Amino acid sequence: MQNNLILVVEDDKSVRNLIITTLKTKSYPYVSSETGKDALELINEKKPDIVLLDLGLPDIDGIEVIKQIRAWSNMPIIVISARSEDKDKIQALDMGADDYLTKPFSVDELLARLRVTQRRLAMISSTASNSVFHNGKLTIDYSAGCAFVSDQQLHLTPIEFKLLCLLSKNVGKVLTHTYLTKEIWGTSWETDMASLRVFMATLRKKLEANDNSEHYIQTHIGVGYRMLKVE
Ligand code: CA
């Protein structure tokens, strides 16, 4: 995975150096600024992918920076602040920050948060590039998070929708029980296998509720499931 460009906004030189040194250990490209105004200019100019933002800045407050970014952009903002009270965190998250680290922070934790954010960005770009799927009467709008059969919207739970996405993105291929449970729950225990069967049964029922002339999901007993390509 290509590392995203990180903007570091921090007026305290020692903290800024620590963050930059940390980014360098994992070869993240970065730009940095000491003030809120410079940060907003750099965002326009360099188009960073992720912002690491201090709140106590010498010119404008970090909260105001979040507000200005959110007026036009969904870029991930991770706040790194000495303000440790719940109300400060809540205010930053309410304004649109994605995550909040309290100083002093652990370098490993910062890297972990960055990895999670990068994965989310990668997922968004892969769904945005191919955001609507068609198969027979089935339509899935990945970015809107909804699915239709014959123009009737399906009322799917988040797990059913995720299963449907996994199957459709691999249409024609058998996905094993282990692969599916790992993708959904991160594990593949016996209890997950049982849950998978239940979710698959309800998903199939919903797909075929209005029109059972098409069978979209095929069961491969003891192996997994496959979405069939319907003409
Ligand atoms: Ca500061």
Q: Please give the largest β-sheet.
A: 5 strands, parallel
Assign a percent range to the helix content: 40-55%
- The CATH class of the largest domain is Alpha Beta
- The count of strands amounts to 12
The SSE order reads: EHEHEHEHEHEEEEHEHHEE
Overall mean pLDDT stands at 90
Oligomer: single chain
Proportion of strand residues: 15-25%
Which structural class matches the secondary elements?
alpha/beta
Give the neighbour order of strands across the main sheet: 2-1-3-4-5
Shape: elongated
Specify Rg, calculated over alpha carbons. Answer: 22 Å
Low-confidence stretches: none
User: CATH architecture of the largest domain, please?
Assistant: 3-Layer(aba) Sandwich
Descriptive overview:
The protein is an alpha/beta fold and 231 residues long. It folds into two domains: 6-124, Response regulator (Rossmann fold, 3-Layer(aba) Sandwich), CATH 3.40.50.2300; 128-227, Winged helix-like DNA-binding domain superfamily/Winged helix DNA-binding domain (Arc Repressor Mutant, subunit A). It has eight helices and twelve strands. It has helices at 13-25, 36-46, 62-70, 86-95, 107-129, 158-169, 177-185, 190-207; strands at 6-9, 30-33, 50-53, 77-81, 99-102, 132-135, 138-141, 146-149, 152-153, 174-176, 217-220, 224-227. The strands form three sheets. A five-stranded parallel β-sheet has the order 2-1-3-4-5, with helices on both faces. A four-stranded antiparallel β-sheet has the order 6-7-8-9, with helices on one face. Helix 2 (36-46) runs parallel beside helix 3 and helix 6 crosses helix 8 (190-207). The chain is elongated. The chain starts with 5 loop residues before the first strand and ends with a strand. The model has no long low-confidence stretch (mean pLDDT 90). The structure holds calcium ion.
